[in-house]
Amino acid sequence: MESFFVPTLIVALAEIGDKTQLLALLLAARYRRPWPIIWGIVVATLANHAAAGAVGSWVSSLFSPVVLSWILAASFAAVALWTLVPDKLDDDDARLGRPYGPFVATTIAFFIAEMGDKTQVATVMLAAQYPEFVLVILGTTVGMLLANVPVVLVSHFAADRLPLTLIRRVAAGGFAALAVYAGYQAVTMSTIVSG
């Protein structure tokens, strides 16, 4: 179950203050219909993270476990630093939802906004680390929902009350811990292979 719970926690923390969370806030304020927005988030996240997870699984088949552990360690360290930088919603992302209803607008906007986002990169890395592909994708999707559904349901009230800097630091610490763990695995495997 680690393949489910670790991705859930990592993505939920990384998503706080992310541009997709700001997008959820804008869509909730614009449409004032939470359930189509929530379902749009589910569909977009499953599609986006399934593709990212497939890339992660493919990458894991290209490298030896030692090399993959070093790549994961470096990637997790980079995402830990990236998590400390607050996201801002671009005007282009905000305009994505205008011409459609809430479900279609949310699905399209979230799918596009997640491209190259730190949670998508984290999904690639987590899918490379954990062999249970479906559990990783479900975990990252649940993490996305844990961060975004409260924003949709309580709109600006919840977003104004969350200690975003503290949450970003906790998420960065989580990624840093994963980087250390992946580095430890690489050193351990290198020792076994060479010894």
UniProtKB/TrEMBL annotation:
Keyword Protein transport attributed: no
Regions crossing the membrane: 37-56, 62-84, 133-154, 166-184
UniProt family annotation: Belongs to the GDT1 family.
Keywords for this protein: Membrane, Transmembrane, Transmembrane helix
Cellular-component GO terms for this entry: membrane
GO molecular function annotations of the record: metal ion transmembrane transporter activity
InterPro entries: GDT1-like
Domain of life of the organism encoding this protein: Bacteria
Membrane topology: Multi-pass membrane protein
Localisation: Membrane
UniProt source species: Stutzerimonas stutzeri
Protein name in the entry: GDT1 family protein
